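Re: export button greyed out
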Amino acid sequence: MVEIRFLAHVDREKCVSCPLCENVCPTAAVTLPAKGAKAEVVDEKCVACPNCSGVCPVDAITLVPREVPLRLGLDATEEEEPAIVALCQKAHLHPQQWLCLCTATRVREGAAAVLRGATTPEEVALATGTRSGCTVYCLQPTLRLLKAHGVKVVQPEGYRWYDTSQTCWDVPEAVVRKYPGHFLEEDLAVFRKA
Amino acid sequence: MITQPHPSFIRRSAYGPEPKTRAAALPGIVGLDIQSLFPDMPRAIYVEGGDLGVVRAATRNSLKDVPMDKIRPGDKVNVLASQYGFTIMGGDAYAEMLRTIKDVVEERTGCRNIRLRVCTGFRIREPDEIIEHYRLREHFPAGAMGIRAIDKGIPIETEIGTLYGVARVYDADWIIHAHHGELRELDMHRMINRAYKPFAMSYARMETRAVAHMNFGPRSSNFVSRVIFHSPFVQSKFTFGCFLLTSPQGITGVTAGTDLEALDRKLMLLGFKSYGKIRELFAEIKDCIVVLDGTGEPRYMAGGGLSFGNVTEAELDLFDLDVVPVSLGFGLYERPRGQPKAKSVNPAIRALVINHMWLGVPQQELATHIPTIAVGDDLARLLREDPMNHDFMARCVTADNLPTAMKFAHALSGTDKVVVFDGSFGTMTVSPSLASYLTERAPHVSRRVDEELMPKWLRQRGIAPESIEAVDA
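Workaround output, generated via the alternate export path:
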């Protein structure tokens, strides 16, 4: 369970209605409802990552303590273990592998979120509490789980995230041969043994 | 040889507390001269506080034969820098290399639209702090700008599909890859394509950084950087690379060229030559207290010229490509058959005292696996509020001051061996007992590297043994 103790707060006097904050929010909690409108925050979707306050060019966004911490996360044991294992295997992930180092969340929990119906990275984040730290590394396992489950992910407008998720399983054989000495086949063999 | 400790300057930052009394000032703490341990290690031309003219001259010399004729006076050029270069010995040497690159390109090509791009990891505002501290806008009047992994991207078509760079990295006619050879994240790059790494990290969007870190293996992750570099898009903009070379003694030189593969090979050989023995020496330590007391996050903080991340993994020879430890993501959890088990943190570290560090990188495993003491309420407060280390402070204790923390660490660990990661190069900041132990072990380490390990590292990469003698900073 991840406890979110802070919340993004917009100083409307300072906000210049640029779209930077909207484009870096991992859960689509910060939005500009219309062109020229001030940024708004949906409290229950804000995971208090450092992105919006970090990029704001006029320091209009600060992280303030929540009156009541937001608790995010799920109990993966409530899902059928074979289903979790099967989804992880399909995504070439191990259930016990880290999904998110910042929040100490395992891939198992991301798989459970997808099995429960999450269809976007934003929904997985809100179900598990991931993407509340660096917001970077957990995106790949999340995309891989969603795609392995057959979800057609749709890249959002702007640049909140781009749909790219190459893995070492996807490298064409000709390319492997073109760049010898990169241990691609050897690393795949290691993955297979694990 | 025992000498005075030389802790590096601590740069003030929103990501760290106010600097306080340094660990090097603790009674009994000494400096251990690195040169006397390993006389064959590449020697420094510059150490912190020295004459930056030496770095300037080395940069000019490295660039004198680099062709620049494709840059025309009316073109736009981006000099690409990475934030960790500014944590090497206070950052002045790296900043000087960047300024000199700009001066030389301007002199040789007549181009005046040379901009600086300072790339960063997770500390979003760090580039702005860097640009201000080193007064880089003054030297780059055409523009000095920070680059973050969450900034707007640009698609790069590669042989493994579309990957994404940061748009403002590539918003020029030409790019100059200005990096350094310091040994960090060895668990990620294993000295394979080290020179290419920023193309999938510093210069890349977050999705692409995560592809390299999470979707490729413990030896193949820099393949991602390689295919990005070889993409038609990047090749259409690349001019040359320029690298600040380091050894644990300090800055050893500057090298530059248009052939990144040749530069990479040089970096690799110098990496073995410069860091092979000091890594093995740290692996000899069976019990110690580590004090963190420098600029940046723990894993990239140098002590005796070697970053702490090398010590948290010192139990494994990460130059050895037959060793495949379980690492970060990399799709592995259980260790593959026949492989050594990687610990989350080297168990020789019996206690960790944090006197000064910056936030902004997930590093919770430190407090999870080592008894950890944070010095001062200001550091504790920052750690408590760090979104990248949700439970760090729930797993460590706080001391009011450094002497109290050390007393507690000594009692807890039962060892009097102390090593301080304070950014020092040239000397290692240690307790006398550890200085004696390392001095006694150094000849054994030197022999083992020369006779067993170096030949193996070279053989695994298909490199002739005489290459290591021939390479020079």
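Chain B has two domains: 2-41+277-439, 53-272. The button fix ships in the next patch.
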